[in-house]
Amino acid sequence: MKILYFFPEYGTNMFNWQRVHIINELESHGVEVVTFNPLLFSDPSEANEAFIGQMKSDKYDLIMSSVCYEKMIFPEVLQTAKSLSIPTLCIRWDNLIIPFYDKKLSKMFDLVWLTSCETEYLYKKWGANTIFLPYAANPKAFKYI
Question: What is the pTM of this model?
Answer without folding.
Answer: 0.90
